[in-house]
Amino acid sequence: MGGVSNRPWRASVAVAALTALLVSGCSGDPERPTPTPSPVGTSAGPSVPAAPPASDPASRAAALVATLSDEDLVGQVLMPYAYGDSATKVSAGSAAGNQALAGVDTPADMIAKYRLGGLILVGFSADDPTKGNQETTNVDNPKQVHELTTGLRTAAGRLAAGSAPLLIGTDQEYGVVTRVTDGVTVLPSALAAGAAGDPKLTEAAWRAAGTELAAMGINIDFAPVADVLATRSTVIGSRSYGADPKQAAAQVGGAVRGLQAVGVAATLKHFPGHGHSADDSHQDLPVLTQSAAALQSGAWPPFTAGIDAGAMAVMSGHLDARAIDPGTPATFSHKLLTDVLRGQLGFKGVVITDGMNMPPAKRWAPGEAAVRALNAGNDLILMTPNVGQAYDGLLAALRGGSLPRTRLVEAVTRVLTMKFRLAEQPAAQMSTLNTPAHRAAADALAAAAVTVLRGACGPAVRGPVTVTTSGGRDGTRATLTAALTAAGVQVKPSGGTIVHLVGYGDGAKDLSPDAAVTVAMDTPYVLADAKSPTLLATYSSSRASMTALAAVIAGKARPGGRSPVAVPGLPATTCRT
């Protein structure tokens, strides 16, 4: 495509491009009518168009796209992070962070200046393998998050694309990657769900969790993790549903159905399969050495299951799949995202990059990286390290021809279609957060996950117990102590039968030689080195998991889980059902 005028693009050009796009079925409906052209917004100050007629989301998206200027189109494919816990009032430090990131003071200013399609809420958690690209935090408690998202949507409502609600996402995976932890129902980890082995329990738990996300104003969750844990990957670990592709696939499908039933888009990640490398893409570019056939049978079934369940989004991973496109991170690979994900796996929704502030994506400047990612087949650019440079790079590439207009129109149409689909579901009220019914769903999943890998199915101990932990887990020890006491087990500061807890990042040095019971609260591999006569796994340190563990120790519940990963020298369970 040759050079393009700097004026906003003509509606007739937009309609021609959209007609070809819609006939190809990019949004999953090849029978949609061609949209009627509307006046084009201007670069200087786009007016908010009248809402498209009430029709299906894809038609509404196509009609809205036909009204948008170059600047509006580019903004809709950007989903950065911002500094601050409010849309309009931030600290001096957060304002400085936003100035460095985007040349503005507040998140609301960022949305207005760059006409953003979305914003990701970021934050820190205790045992977080993704902390390398979490440069700030936006989350404190549900009330604050709700006020923040309300302010962000108010700012976005003034945009030319404002009739389509702003995408507000976060990484609420549960387990070691959980952004909002206080005042909400916290599910056990994905690996715990894999141990429970009941997709219906997973679906019910994720429906409860999704309801609470929606109530806080979050409409896209960067979950579930669809990676099969084929290696001892510490960055994926208990974020995965397990090592068996078929069993993980069933769990992923359940999580997708639960989330999307309540109006929160699910995102399958990290395609083509981060669990097939032990390396960490937050530090370098992991290499997948498996053949294409091995990836198809061993890595992609959970992605296929999620797609079949209707997942609205897939996240592309910074992964080098040598058998398919050697040397090119999947985020930038047309072969993987367009030929495989869309062509072979049949995905028709929104493809989102992994964080573009991670090292494998930063080998290019933000503008060039954004253009490369979009041309490869991504529709949303997540967490660019410089919003202004990414925006300007995309706009220049559009007008210079290196970013085909049809590719950008296709991406924006998909994004807007997803937004309109999400808007069809009314959000729950804040009163739904952490309700007894939601906690019961999390409790049921956690209870079904508890696994005994050595020892009997009956009570794990007799007499008083003393709970010990590896370093820095005093909060979890206190939670279990309270749960044991409530279950009728006497807990003594010392001198009792030792129940020892180990978690994320722990190894053989963190085990206790005096423990009668050792409990793995993350991946269970460490249990291979434990000498305790009883070995249990909860795969999670959540309140629900500690309550379930207490019931097993007290002999009030049977540990019916099966380890979803192989632990050398140990069976998946010694408790036969």
From TrEMBL:
Keywords per UniProt: Glycosidase, Hydrolase, Signal
UniProt xrefs under Pfam families: Glyco_hydro_3
Taxonomic path: Bacteria, Bacillati, Actinomycetota, Actinomycetes, Micromonosporales
UniProt source species: Micromonospora trifolii
Family membership: Belongs to the glycosyl hydrolase 3 family.
Name the UniProt record assigns to this protein: beta-N-acetylhexosaminidase
Matches recorded under Gene3D superfamilies: Glycoside hydrolase family 3 C-terminal domain (3.40.50.1700), Glycoside hydrolase, family 3, N-terminal domain (3.20.20.300)
Every Glycoside hydrolase family 3 N-terminal domain range: 106-417
Coiled-coil region: none
Reaction equations catalysed: Hydrolysis of terminal non-reducing N-acetyl-D-hexosamine residues in N-acetyl-beta-D-hexosaminides
GO molecular function: hydrolase activity
EC number(s) given by UniProt: 3.2.1.52
Signal peptide annotation: 1-28
SUPFAM superfamilies: (Trans)glycosidases
Residue segments, region Disordered: 26-56
